[in-house]
Amino acid sequence: MTLRVALALGFVVAARPSLGQSVHKVTELAPGVYAIQHDNRDKYVSGNTTVIIGDRQVFVIDATFLPTLAREDIAQIRQWTNKPVSFLLNTHFHEDHTIGNRVYMDAFPGLTIVAHVETKRMMDMLGPSAARRLEEDQAPLQRMLDTKKGPDGKDLTADDVKDVQAALARHRAAIADIQSVQFQSATLSFEQGFTVDIGGREVQVQYLGRGNTEGDAIVYLPKEKILVTGDLVVSPIPYVSDGYPTEWVKTLQRMTELDATTIVPGHGPVMHDKSYIFLLHDLIQSAMDQMNAKVAATRAVAEQTLDDVKGGVNLSSFRQRFAGGNPDVAAEFDDMTGDLVRLVYNEAVLR
Questions:
Q1: Portions of the chain given CATH number 3.60.15.10
Q2: Order of strands across the sheet with 202-206?
Q3: What is the pLDDT along the chain (351 residues), one digit of tens a residue?
Q4: Are 50 and 175 in contact (CB under 8 A)?
Q5: Kind and range of the H or E run holding 272
Q6: 181: Cβ–Cβ under 8 A, 6 or more apart, which residues?
């Protein structure tokens, strides 16, 4: 796909892809505990799913974006155990973690779907319109196809046209897939957290504070020392298009205080130490510190635009630490830092 068409198509996918994310992969974290790392199915990203099997019940964390993918995960779970999935936790409201809820509910009628109260509020507000928003996103693609021109006004090549046609086909298939199920919100919400014993296995659901969203939940297995973070942690590049930077760094700090040796991020491969969490913490903290210093050195923040202050934030020292030698991840890092600078600026304006 040509660069300009790829850029034009970037806003019509369900979520920004994690470039380091590999093909659909299952990792056994401990006996009866599995992480399912999803591929970018038809360019639509789904968050990682974690499956915790107890002596009596199964606890699942996050339900994917496309219903077809949720069905595949359920088929995999049934190969592991004949015990029912009794609990499904949505770590946050983003649709790549929640649209599969209905598939799980249909497969396991006794299921309890759990979310933080703020996550449920956002799910109830946004979830039912997921397919409609995807339909609206088709308009730029259809316009490119009708006019045979890219967003830059230049004529599309024959290969460009094929790319747009393929993207439209994927988009329509995703819409049909989502429309095949009713939206299913959480059936149980919580504020601070709880612990459940699913049979010889203690599962702790915790709310450590705001970060990527208002209602980010994590899951911690103290015996197995396994931590499931949701999108508070995403690898290789974090999702920072929205969130609460000042609180996010505090939430990450609390997370590092848990005795965990295996970490399942919201997207990306399983981790076996906390080094990436510390790196993410330092990145956000640096962006905030530099923004605050820039604002303090000039005039009142309310009188400054983002363009006035963004040059005072330089995060290039983190580029190599996130991207290594991968030029694609490096480019994604550069895009991400623009979002992060905007995020910390917006928070500074509200102070």
A1: 18-126+183-273
A2: 193-197, 202-206, 218-221, 226-234, 262-267
A3: 443 444 444 433 333 333 333 357 999 999 999 999 987 655 678 899 999 999 999 999 999 999 999 999 999 999 999 999 999 999 999 999 999 999 999 999 999 999 999 999 999 999 888 878 878 878 888 889 899 988 888 999 999 999 888 888 888 888 888 888 999 999 999 999 999 999 999 999 999 999 999 999 999 999 999 999 999 999 999 999 899 999 999 999 999 999 999 999 999 999 999 999 999 999 999 999 999 888 777 765 556 788 778 788 999 999 999 999 899 999 999 999 999 999 999 888 776
A4: no
A5: none
A6: 67, 99, 102, 103, 106
List, in order, residues 6 or more apart from 148 with CB less than 8 Å away: 155, 156, 161
Asked whether the beta carbons of 244 and 345 are under 8 A apart, the reply is no
Q: Could you identify the residue written with the tokens 């190599």?
A: 320
What span, in angstroms and rounded, lies between the C-alpha atoms of 43 and 60? 24
DSSP track, 122-144: HHHHHGGGHHHHHHHHHHHHHHH
Neighbours of 346 (CB within 10 A): 12
> How many angstroms separate the first and last alpha carbons of the chain?
43
Is residue 211 within a helix (H) or strand (E), and if so which, with residue range? none
> How many C-beta neighbours within 10 Å does residue 342 have?
15
At 157, which amino acid appears?
T
List C-alpha distances in Å: 335 to 17, 81, 131, 329.
Answer: 12, 42, 27, 10
CA–CA distance, 84 with 35 (Å, rounded to integer): 18
> Residues 216, 91: contact at Cβ < 8 Å?
yes
CA 247 to chain centre: 18
Q: Are 211 and 252 in contact (CB under 8 A)?
A: yes
Q: What's the pTM value of the predicted model, to 2 decimals?
A: 0.89
Residue 94, both tokens: 């983003």
CB 98 within 8 A of CB 127: yes
Class of domain 18-126+183-273: alpha beta
> Do 16 and 257 touch, CB atoms closer than 8 A?
no
CA-to-CA separations, 114 to 86, 92, 176, 184, 188, in angstroms, rounded: 10, 10, 26, 11, 5
